[in-house]
């Protein structure tokens, strides 16, 4: 199987892919700045591009929410605070092809009538920050940023801003608070950022991959993009395969491809082992098992099977992995990264962590499974942002698919994978 659609990843093998010389002239931006702004928005709407940051909201529709003629400055903020366990597409994209993002920023800012844009990057990835700074500097020197871009009369200033390493700042309103210099905590909505975002002005917030996909849409046309993927999940996306796979990495393919097809291209599960469970969109999406190998990886199909496509972070786990321990580690992460603003998430993730630690040690009882699902139920839909909801996903799905494995911990008084798995589980 070789169904790949290298667009964003097309030049990653070039040693100078991250330079302006390796990327080429900003032809799509020049074309866009010669179009009517509403026509640019309509082209993105017609393409069917949906947000590549996890939620899958139609990108053109989000741009269209920005009020026009309101007399206020408009802002574009690129969410490059990639922090989800398993998600690893935006950082290599910005490392290998930062100019696709910068060009996408120009087109998007023009379309929404913004003269100031920000790229908010996770602070720990210093190498990425330096590369973005270099790309932005090259764009300014070439006249692609700043005053009178391409002689169009359009002005745009772009700032690369480094965060301070808080997962919660990947939530769009917490990101805005952080960008304004406050502690990153989610805002109560409404008002939504399109009406009152950065500095209480209309703001569009999009993921790195979403914005980087825009130049190819403008250059090749909406129909070209819509011709890939599925009817409702159009286009291509970067699928990040990690874990127990022979050739982990980034695979850019049409939405609707299956894990079975991706594994064929990636050399399959590591030699001598078999697939046990996997995440379709990072640790905050309900886990799947080997029975879901042929589920089309698009928003609708994955949702119909009880999970979310998310960021297409395909974490692959074979039979040597303890599900309880994996869920415990994810839960420890969410408890640590909860901002503490709302009680369900702050208290719920703490107690989920405590109970799961006990369960993993084999010190719990079957009643504890009811306890953790009850706690998860009391978090789900009751927190300010999606962090709380995401923390419940591995809880509910792991108990659903691997209840027997939880029970095995109680039976032997510890984790069966601390013993020889072959003697405890047979060929499981």
UniProtKB/TrEMBL annotation:
Gene3D superfamilies: 3.10.20.600, 6.10.250.1450, NADH-ubiquinone oxidoreductase 51kDa subunit, NADH-ubiquinone oxidoreductase 51kDa subunit, iron-sulphur binding domain. GO terms for biological process: cellular respiration. Residues 324-369 form the NADH-ubiquinone oxidoreductase 51kDa subunit iron-sulphur binding domain. Pfam families: Complex1_51K, NADH_4Fe-4S, SLBB. Its EC number is 7.1.1.-. Its cofactor is FMN; [4Fe-4S] cluster. It catalyses: a quinone + NADH + 5 H(+)(in) = a quinol + NAD(+) + 4 H(+)(out). InterPro entries: ComplexI_51kDa_subunit, NADH-UbQ_OxRdtase_51kDa_CS, NADH-UbQ_OxRdtase_suF, Nuo51_FMN-bd, Nuo51_FMN-bd_sf, Nuop51_4Fe4S-bd, Nuop51_4Fe4S-bd_sf, Soluble_ligand-bd. It is an enzyme of class 7 (translocase). SMART domains: NADH_4Fe-4S (SM00928). Keywords: 4Fe-4S, Flavoprotein, FMN, Iron, Iron-sulfur, Metal-binding, NAD, Quinone, Translocase. GO terms for molecular function: 4 iron, 4 sulfur cluster binding; FMN binding; metal ion binding; NAD binding; NADH dehydrogenase (ubiquinone) activity; NADH dehydrogenase activity; quinone binding. NDH-1 shuttles electrons from NADH, via FMN and iron-sulfur (Fe-S) centers, to quinones in the respiratory chain. Belongs to the complex I 51 kDa subunit family. This is NADH-quinone oxidoreductase subunit F. It comes from Planobispora rosea.
């Amino acid at each position: 199987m070789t169904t790949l659609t290298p667009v964003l990843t097309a030049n990653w093998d070039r040693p100078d892919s991250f330079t302006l010389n390796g990327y080429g002239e900003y032809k799509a931006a020049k074309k866009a700045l010669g179009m009517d702004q509403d026509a640019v928005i309509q082209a993105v709407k017609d393409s069917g591009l949906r947000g590549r940051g996890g939620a899958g909201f139609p990108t053109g529709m989000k741009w269209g929410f920005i009020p026009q003629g309101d007399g206020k400055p408009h802002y574009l903020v690129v969410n490059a605070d990639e922090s989800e366990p398993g998600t690893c597409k935006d950082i290599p994209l910005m490392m290998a092809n930062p100019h696709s993002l910068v060009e996408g920023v120009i087109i998007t800012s023009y379309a929404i009538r913004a003269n100031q844009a920000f790229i908010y990057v996770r602070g720990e990835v210093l190498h990425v920050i330096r590369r973005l700074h270099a790309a932005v500097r090259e764009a300014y020197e070439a006249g692609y940023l700043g005053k009178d871009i391409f002689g169009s009369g359009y002005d745009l200033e772009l700032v690369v801003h480094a965060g301070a390493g808080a997962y919660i700042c990947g939530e769009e309103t917490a990101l805005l608070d952080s960008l304004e210099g406050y502690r990153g905590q989610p805002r109560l909505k409404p008002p939504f950022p399109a009406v009152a975002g950065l500095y209480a002005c209309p703001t569009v917030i999009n993921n790195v991959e979403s914005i980087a996909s825009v130049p190819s849409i403008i250059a090749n046309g909406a129909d070209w993009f819509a011709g890939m993927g599925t009817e409702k999940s159009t286009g291509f996306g970067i699928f990040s395969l990690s874990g127990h796979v022979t050739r982990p990495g980034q695979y850019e393919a049409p939405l609707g491809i299956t894990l079975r097809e991706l594994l064929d291209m990636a050399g399959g599960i590591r030699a001598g082992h078999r697939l046990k469970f996997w995440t379709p969109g990072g640790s905050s999406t309900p886990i799947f098992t080997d029975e879901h190998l042929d589920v089309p990886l698009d928003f609708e199909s994955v949702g119909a099977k009880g999970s979310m496509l998310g960021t297409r972070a395909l974490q692959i786990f074979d039979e040597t992995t303890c599900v309880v321990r994996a869920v415990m580690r994810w839960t420890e992460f969410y408890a640590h990264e909860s901002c503490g603003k709302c009680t369900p998430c702050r208290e719920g993730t703490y107690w989920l962590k405590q109970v799961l630690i006990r369960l993993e040690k084999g010190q719990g009882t079957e009643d504890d499974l009811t306890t953790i699902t009850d706690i998860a139920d009391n978090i789900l839909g009751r927190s300010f942002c999606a962090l709380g909801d995401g923390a419940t996903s591995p809880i509910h799905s792991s108990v659903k698919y691997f209840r027997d494995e939880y029970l095995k911990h109680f039976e032997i008084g510890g984790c069966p994978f601390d013993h020889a798995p072959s003697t405890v589980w047979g060929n499981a």
